[in-house]
Amino acid sequence: MKLISVVVPCYNEQEVLPMFYEEITKVTGEMKEKNPELEFEYLFINDGSKDRTLEIFRELASKDKRVRYISFSRNFGKESGIYAGLKNSKGDYVVVMDADLQHPPAFLPQMYDYVKDGEYDCATTRRISRQGESKVRSFFARMFYKIMNKISDTEIVDGAQDFRFMTRQMVDAVLSMSEYNRFSKGIFSWVGFRVKYMPYENVERPAGTTSWSFWGLFKYSLEGIMAFSTFPLAVSIFMGIICLVLSVIVFMAGIAVSLVTDKKFSGFAGISLALAIGGIQLGCMGIMGQYISKMYLEVKKRPIYIAGETDEDFRNKDKVE
Ligand code: UDP
Ligand code: MG
C-alpha cells in the first residue's frame, strides 16, 4: 500500500471547496483504479477563514474518512498552511495544491508517474503564460525572478508554483527547514532533489477571489529576496565605496578651484555630498534593520501555526455524545 497525502491550504474558499472536493476525488478515484496499491488522504488546512470553510471541512470529514483537517486559531498565511500540512501528512508521497482549482487535479496521475519509479523526487507545474494577469503584475513578477536569480544562490524557476508532488524524503527535507520566515518557492528549490517541471497554461479561478493584493505580492517578493539572499547587505559596502570616491573627488576639485581661480570653493557641493551620504547611510541602516528584524522573529521561536480544531477533535466529539 502506498499512501498519497493531498495537502490543501484554504482561506475563505467556501465557493470552490465543493468543486475542488468533487474534482480531486474523481481524479484520485481514477488513479486508484489504475493503481490499486494507492490510498489517499486529503488534509485540508483552514487558515482562519471568515466564511463557511470550516463547516464544509466538517461536512466532508463526516461523510468521507479520508478527509482530515486542521483549523488554525487565526489567519497565519499560506506558508504556515503548507508547513502544517506537510508536518501532519502521513503519506509516502505528499501533494501540495491550492483549493481554487488553479492547480488542476488532472495533473496528479502524470505527476505520480514521474515520481513513482524514483526517476524524480518531485513533480511540479510551471506556468508558461501569464494570461489573465495584468501587464503591470506580469512585469513585476518577471523582474522579481530576474533579480532573485541574479543575487541569490537558490535558483527559482520563473513561473514555478507551489503545486508539488513530492516523495517523503523531500518532504522531510522541507520540514527540516524550520524557519519562521517561510518562503516556499525558495525552500522547495533550496532542498534540491530531482525536480520535473511540467509546463502548463495559467487557469483562472472558477469562483471566489484571490487573496493577494498587488502590495501584498510586492511585500512577499521582498521577503523572498531577504530569506534567500544577503545581497542587499552587500549593497551598503558598495555604496560606502562610491561615497568615499566621490568625497575625494569633490575635495580635490575644491582645492583645484581655489588654487586656479581667486574664488573660494562654494560650500554647496560639500553640503549636497554630506546630504547624499546621510541618505545612503540611513538607507543602509534600514536594510540592516530589516535583516535584524527577521533575526528577532527567528530567535523568538514562535510557533509557525496554532491549531484550534482538527478532524480528530471533531470525530472524538461525535463519539462522546
Ligand atoms: N491561502 C491561504 N492563506 C492565506 C491566503 C491564501 O491558505 O492567507 C490559500 C488559498 O485558499 C488558496 C491558495 O492559498 O488555496 C492560493 O491563494 P490564492 O488563490 O488567493 O492566490 P493566487 O492563486 O492568486 O496566487
Ligand atoms: Mg489562486
Please characterize this protein's 3D structure.
The chain is elongated. The model has no long low-confidence stretch (mean pLDDT 87). It has an eight-stranded mixed β-sheet, with helices on both faces. Helix content is 53%, strand content 16%. It contains eleven helices and eight strands. The longest helix is centred in the last third of the chain and has 34 residues. It folds into two domains: 229 residues, Spore Coat Polysaccharide Biosynthesis Protein SpsA, Chain A (Alpha-Beta Complex), CATH 3.90.550; 70 residues. The site of uridine-5'-diphosphate has 16 residues, from strand 1 and helix 3.
Task: Give the helix/strand layout.
Layout: E1 2-10, H1 17-34, E2 38-46, H2 53-63, E3 67-72, H3 78-88, E4 93-96, H4 108-116, E5 122-127, H5 135-151, E6 160-167, H6 168-176, H7 184-190, E7 195-200, H8 214-228, H9 231-260, H10 267-300, E8 307-310, H11 311-320
Parallel strand pairs: 1-2, 1-4, 2-3, 5-7
Antiparallel strand pairs: 3-8, 4-6, 5-6
Bound molecules: uridine-5'-diphosphate and magnesium ion (MG).
Write down the domain tally. Answer: 2
Question: Could you tell me the mean pLDDT?
Answer: 87
**How does the helix and strand content classify structurally?**
alpha/beta
Straight-line N-to-C gap:
34 Å
Q: Helix coverage percent of residues?
A: 40-55%
Strand content: 15-25%
CATH superfamily of the largest domain: Spore Coat Polysaccharide Biosynthesis Protein SpsA, Chain A
Number of helices: 11
Gyration radius (Cα, Å) is 26 Å
**Tell me, what is the CATH class of the largest domain?**
Alpha Beta
Briefly note the CATH topology name of the largest domain: Spore Coat Polysaccharide Biosynthesis Protein SpsA, Chain A
Cofactors, ions, other ligands: uridine-5'-diphosphate, magnesium ion
**Main pleated-sheet profile:** 8 strands, mixed
